[in-house]
Amino acid sequence: MIENAQRGDRQAFSALLELHYDFVHNVAWRWSGNVADAEDIAQDVCVKLGQAIRSFRGTSRFRTWLYTLTLNAARDHQRKAARDRRNAGSFIADPAFSAVEAANDNTEQSEALWTAVRSLPEKQCDAVLLVYAEGLSHAAAADVMGCSEATVSWHVHEARKRLKILLGRETM
Fold it and tell me: For residue range 81-121, what is the model confidence (pLDDT) as tens digits?
């Protein structure tokens, strides 16, 4: 199906989108913490996928490649939202950081944790979300982030230290 989509087969591309859309949307939601933003990000990924499908070389699993594409779209969306707020002179906190609900636990404590995670430096946030929210191994997270497994472990370690300070208690 991927090869056919790469050759321009619209039905194959449509089937590929249908097969992976929920995955893309779920990842976008976990990164943004907001349904509307997740929908925007997922739509951006669909457009980018149409442009980028020919560049998929098969050196990694398609889902890992799509994960990276989605992660980059989520980052782009967050950067654009931050620029828009700055340009408008708004100092309101990023809604992606303040309106988080954990997928399996809607407690205030869980919301505070994921809000704090999203406020971490980008690489630390990515590592924690990939390992803890997505359930990826450090090796799989390293593939998505384009770094070594040791680097992912270091980012998670640093994130834990920072979260302990931010939340005033032991985390994860």
Answer: 776 665 443 323 333 333 333 333 446 667 778 888 888 99
**Element housing 97 (H / E):** helix 95-98
Residues 6+ apart with CB under 8 A from 134: 27, 30, 141
Structural domain harbouring 111? 100-172
**Residue 138: both structure tokens together:** 């450090």
Whether the Cβ atoms of residue 93 and residue 116 lie closer than 8 Å to each other: no
Contact by Cβ (8 Å): 149, 127: no
Instruction: Say yes or no: 24 and 73 in one domain.
Output: yes
Q: What would the DSSP string read from start to end of 40-79?
A: HHHHHHHHHHHHHGGG--SSS-HHHHHHHHHHHHHHHHHH
CA separation, residue 41 to residues 5, 17, 166 (Å):
21, 14, 28
- In the chain, the number of structural domains is 2
CA distances from 79 to 69, 85, 126 (A): 15, 10, 15
